[in-house]
Design goal:
The chain contains 14 helices and eleven strands. It is of the alpha/beta class. It folds into two domains: 2-167, 3-Layer(aba) Sandwich (Rossmann fold), CATH 3.40.50; 170-352, Dehydroquinate synthase-like, alpha domain, CATH 1.20.1090. The chain is globular and about 55 Å long. Bound molecules: nicotinamide-adenine-dinucleotide. Residues 38, 40-41, 44-45, 66-68, 71, 98-102, 104, 124-125, 127-128, 131-132, 135, 137, 147, 164, 167-168, 172, 175, 179, 255 line the site of nicotinamide-adenine-dinucleotide (NAD).
Amino acid sequence: MTLIKSNGYNVTIEDNSLDSLSNFLEIKKYTSYFILSDQNIIKLCLPHLLIACPKLITAQIIKIKPGEKSKSLKFSTLIWQTLIDKNADKNTLLINFGGGVISDLGGFAAATFKRGIDFINIPTTLLAMADASLGGKTGINFNEFKNIIGTINQPKGVFINTKFLKTLSLRQLKNGLAEIYKIALVNSHPFWNELSSFSEKTSYIKLITKSIQIKNKIILKDPFDKGIRKSLNFGHTIGHAIESEFLNSEAPMLHGEAVLIGLLIESKISYQKQLISKPMLLEIYSVITSHFKLRSISEIPISSIINRIKNDKKASKNILLFSLINGIGSFKLDVIVSETQIQKAITYHNNLIK
Ligand SMILES: NC(=O)c1ccc[n+]([C@@H]2O[C@H](COP(=O)([O-])OP(=O)(O)OC[C@H]3O[C@@H](n4cnc5c(N)ncnc54)[C@H](O)[C@@H]3O)[C@@H](O)[C@H]2O)c1
């Protein structure tokens, strides 16, 4: 077992047990337990959780539909209403059991119910294990804007068991890998080099541990996203705009899939800003396109992407601020980027990825 100390709580990483969770539940004397999950996870993973932690057999299950659309006010309301109906009190524990949708939504509902009840995250996707379960960013989408309503509120513990990855599809594994590539690209050149030669044989537990160690260092220094934590937004300004464009389409794009495109376009902007060299830009394109199949975004009007960026929570008074890379493994915060520069970078990308 690996234990990483974060902001007032521990992240434990295990490959075959949930002993740390059982110990946590023994020590803390909660009056009741609620498990927030979606129907896939309830079917595939919940039996393992209940066998590992018999204490949770009496927990109330709050079931939501899988997918990004559930990260909404409608489902927050469902959680609040269930907590009220089933007499949750201030000493209730909400257990977010699932991917990033579950931890973002459940963390938000827990932060706001009775002005805050305890919650823990038991991530079941690679993306949530390597990134979303850690750091206390919680929230929902609203009127098609990603994560526009939310809080920064830390869980009481994060319990990672890589056994849950066994039932995850290849598409979802790649979705999680996207955030791992981002963490490396922004913060660690040696980790980026390791990922450049990633193969199916690479151990996920090693990648998750490394990602969490890097992210943890950053969030400990800047828990409220005022300084260096913004570096982790690299790829997300463009990525969120693209993800939002596809949110209501027949084939929504996964978060990580949109972030990968964001990483490439924002790398091009970093090049335009003379923060990275041409060979570096080409290396980033080559590594990412050799490990991931990217969807074309050429059908989206560039003006529509730019409008969404203007409404992003990171934009202030129409000045578009980006966290960019300043070399591989290094970053530059709050770089002002013009609409023309964004347009140029998207056009460059669309010419390469048709
Ligand atoms: N708070 C943060 O710091 C942070 C960071 C990155 C991403 N996010 C958010 O995370 C969300 C994406 O999370 P995600 O990619 O985990 O998606 P997700 O939560 O929608 O899960 C993806 C799919 O996998 C299924 N699934 C989950 N675990 C499974 C398992 N073990 N076996 C089989 N199927 C399983 C789910 O039912 C769902 O259909 C986005 O909303 C994004 O904004 C948050």
